[in-house]
Predict the structure.
Amino acid sequence: MVAVGDDVSVATARQVALAAQGFGTARPRRADARAIRKAIGWAGVLQLDSVNVVCRSHYLPAFARVGNYPRATLDRMSWSEDRELFEYFWGHKAALLPLNVFPLMRWRMRAVERQVWDQELSPDLAVPWSVVVGMRRLSAEQPGYVDDVLRMVTEHGPLTAGEASPDGVRRKRTDPDPDPGTGKMWNWQDAKIAIEYLFCTGRVSIAGRRHFERVYDLTERVLPAEVLDRPAPAADEARRELVRIAARGLGIATLKELCGGSGQAHFPLPAATGREVIRELVDAGELVPVRVEGVKQQAYSWHEAEDRPIRGQGLLSPFDPLIWNRDRTHHLFDFFYRISIYTPAPQRVHGYYVLPFLLDDQLVARVDLKADRQSSTLVVPTLTAEPNAPEFVEQLAAELHLMADWLGLDHIAVPAAGRLAAQLTDRMRVTSTPARRVTAEARK
């Protein structure tokens, strides 16, 4: 437990952060739905991302925390009639959230519906910028268009965005010009803008995924009635509860990390609102002001946060809540990390889809991974140890075996060059079993 005004070492802050995220807790022998719920509770948010090099990113945080669990169970929890999660935007990023968070988002949904981008909400905190720009144009040029799209969903849903076009016409990216400020990547079709706006207002929800493309339907046909019937708390109480969730999940953090507009907080808030919420939670004794070694900004510890030794290991998604705030990751772990999927190949240093490897309370290596489904092989193209890292080859070999089993892959290949890759190869050969035909090959 951390006291008010304490000076907290980086090592202590790191242990608090890891414990809050569920690391250091023994993995269950059988990772069932109950274990998955615990992992989601620790993570707080499962960020969605379309990259499928290893597997979809939202599966990885639970694997890092509880081990080999059935992904079909998480699918059922996310997109079936028995769902326990729902899709929404946390900041401008898509995420899976527990159903009990839905009423806490009602204030944001109402603000989006009124399109008060510059008053109650900052655009980068609430919705994709393409929705803001697109709705400004659609509201002026086609004031009835959103209602037409809603009618399509009502009469014919569930639908993809392309299927929701009222006239069946898709505005080309060059007709006549891209929306200013969105760029070609986010220059969405009119139907996509309209249906994403309806999604942000809560009038439609994500019924499922078709080849990972969103399928939309009316919210009352997607979410359980008992969730929709819950009274929405007032905006100020909803915001306090969202920051509480973030504080429990982070353990110890600055205001910006708790609710700042960087897009890397759990539930970003406008700056003045965030400061007020933090002050209220400090006055209530729920947040404890502390100073973290090497961090200039005031930090806050959750009043029930644990400080305990961390034992265990895990391969972390680039979008894992433990490390998605890159500045915080640098402060806590002395680990400068940037995802490389958007970096041109000649400029990549550590690989394409690099997962940091956590051993106890340190990030000890960068493991470039790829699931080659055609050959049923988990591939390690690049492997890089951190400076002064302790020995980790045995633990990494065990984690790769576990991941291959989880993904249903028959082989492990380590084509990475260098002494470390050769050591990993040797270890993989020792631990391979006839029942699980895992091979390990390294390039000298």
Remarks:
- The first strand starts at residue 7 and ends at 8.
